[in-house]
Amino acid sequence: MSTPQSQASLSALADRWLPKLVLSPTLLISLVFVYGFIAWTGWLSLTESRLLPQMDFAGLVQYQALFENDRWWTAVANLGIFGGLFIGCTLAVGLFLAVLLDQKIRAEGTLRTIYLYPMALSFIVTGTAWKWMLNPDMGLQKVINDWGFPDFTFDWLVDPDKAIYTVVIAGVWQSSGFVMALFLAGLRGIDDSIIKAAQVDGASLPVIYWRIIIPSLRPVFFSVLLILSHIAIKSFDLVMALTGGGPGTASDVPAIFMYQFAFTRGQLGLGAASAMMMLMTIVAVLVPLMYMETRSAKRG
Amino acid sequence: MAKHLTPGRIVLYAALLLMAIYYLLPLYVMLSTSVKTLDDIRGGNLIALPQSITLDAWSKAWSSACTGVECGGMKGFFWNSVKMAVPSVLISTLIGAVNGYVVSMWRFRGSDVLFTLLLVGCFIPFQVVLLPMARLLGELGIANTTSGLILVHVIYGLAFTTLFFRNFFVTIPDELVKAARIDGAGFWTIFLRILMPISGPIFMVCVIWQFTQIWNDFLFGVVFAAGESQPITVALNNLVNTSTGVKEYNVDMAAAIIAALPTLFVYMVAGRYFVRGLTAGAVKG
Predict the structure, then answer these.
(1) DSSP bridge partners of A47
(2) Residue numbers of chain A with a pLDDT score lower than 70
(3) pTM of the model
(4) Contacts of B68 (CB under 8 A, 6+ apart)
(5) Which of A37, A173, A226, A238 to mutate to test the interface with B (most CBs of B within 10 A)?
(6) How many whole angstroms separate alpha carbon A114 and alpha carbon A112?
(7) Which of A8, A98, B14, B104 could form a disulfide with A183 if both were Cys (CB 3.0 to 4.6 A apart)?
(8) Interface ipTM
(9) Is the pLDDT of residue B70 over 70?
């Protein structure tokens, strides 16, 4: 039988190694499935792999092929258009709603619930719903026509030059309530006395918001930008459900490009190269944002 | 304080109401289209009320609509998603709870660095792991199975669940744990007896977040589980984009609502936790 002392030292020993032991499977998983897999994809992008992976180093041929591929540049341009407009509009709508809701509104809870429910939906559901509403023959266009504007046309969904904008419409609808919730949380954290003092000084409410309140939401802006750019760069489901990248390849985005080349066209190397480009884009966008966020957080 | 109804307030309420209509319109359109007949859809317009209400589209969407070659409706795929989501959510949440406990209360040298390395998993675009994962699942013989999908969702959910629990546990005063240790409580005792009883809310947040993410996932589903074991999001997309035969918009909409119901339900009954999860996961993430 062990004495109480030896039992105590045994459990102290256990307490020393248990935490490390408990954490290690997750770390191992992360090491293999995140870092290892990124390295694997990175290496694959430096080979001539097509249908089957082959591991002979071939330099930057896949990146060269990628940069000479018109479809890739369409996808990149679309990401630029979509990303810019999606982030800009979502931010504007979300902030606007948050400011409105911050005016001591009756039924605020109900309104918040309504604004935010799209966030619970899958992008596939959102895409399906908007695809139907934007249907050029039977959708919103017909509603407006029936209201007495027979010449009104709204066929962006099938217009190669406009299809990407329909993705923006649906994306903003889905995500703006979420941004509203983040900003509203930020607004609620602001000390009322600052506003009262400004009011005593004779500042009008819009001026107070523009000059004092919105600038003080800086950290929230960074978080929102971080999340929205992340959603934008990864966007795949919404485009698949809404336009499928079409008409033709007109609304392709990098995520769809990657999926199609890697999984339906059997061009593993090119798919891997496009995936690595997506990763680098995320790093290039997120790292400066996170840096600025921590800096602004430190300054308070 | 009670405000009087000034012209400014009226404009304010009008704007809020208008925005509410904008958010509700797609839901209304989905619901009303799903109970219309095809003739009603073609003859009327998008926002008109149904002439008569029929649930035919619903029963077709549930049990006999065609998603590609198969014509068994969404039923089977709905259960695929349930079978995929429930274990993935439970496993990733439990592991995340223990991980979060370690990185917040049992920090050792280097644990902060390890935690940061783990967090990178929240940010990577999953495209960058798809190819090796597909290969691995193939070699393990679980490609195109629900078990394969569960594995993938657990692996890539761990970073988030760990983050949730870590952020919750760091708000608990150290004294609580220190006092328990002096009383002789060990690693598991403290976790099970002291922390678990007060962790209800964060479990809710984490479970809801994970459930929404996994149920709504499309990328992993479409890449790793084609065919019979595909989740409902993939089936819905196939249904809507099947180009054969007459386009049945009412069936599409009924199927879309079926796919959305579980997460909408969670949002309705536990919206509070849903929002908290979004903001906590997002702001810190």
Answers:
(1) A57
(2) 1-8, 296-300
(3) 0.90
(4) B238, B242
(5) A37
(6) 5
(7) A98
(8) 0.90
(9) yes
Domains of chain A, by residue range, sit at 1-44, 60-299
CA distance, residue B146 to nearest chain A CA (Å): 19
- DSSP count for chain B of H helices, then E strands: 13, 0
Contact B263, B216 (CB under 8 A): yes
**CB distance B236 to A124 below 8 Å:** yes
- CA B57, distance to chain mean position in Å, is 26
- B116 and B104 in contact (C-beta within 8 Å)? no
Average pLDDT over residues B19-41: 92
Q: Is A292 exposed, middle or buried (0-12, 13-18, 19+ CB in 10 A)?
A: middle
- Secondary element (H or E) of residue B199: none
CATH topology of domain B75-284: MetI-like fold (1.10.3720)
B152: alpha, beta or left? (left if phi > 0; alpha if psi -120 to 50): alpha
Q: Which of residues 127-146 of A touch B (CB under 8 A)?
A: 128-133, 135, 138-140, 142-143, 146
* Cα dist from A31 to A106, B114, B196, whole Å: 51, 10, 28
Delimit the CATH 1.10.3720.10 region(s) of chain B. Answer: 75-284
A185 contacts B156? CB cut-off 8 A? no
Q: What is the DSSP letter of A300?
A: -
What's the number of CA atoms in the CB half-sphere (13 Å) around residue B60? 19
Asked if B135 lies within 8 A of A53 by C-beta distance, the reply is yes
Chain B interface disruption, residue of A21, A72, A124, most B CBs within 10 A: A124
Which residues in chain A have their CB less than 8 angstroms from residue B215's CB? 122
CB atoms within 10 A of CB B54: 15
Give the tens place of pLDDT for each residue, B152-167.
999 999 999 999 999 8
Determine the distance in angstroms separating the CA of A263 from the nearest CA of chain B, rounded to an integer: 8
Tokens of B277: 């999860």
The phi and psi torsions of A47 (rounded to 5 degrees) equal -120, 175
Superfamily of domain A60-299, CATH level 4: MetI-like (1.10.3720.10)
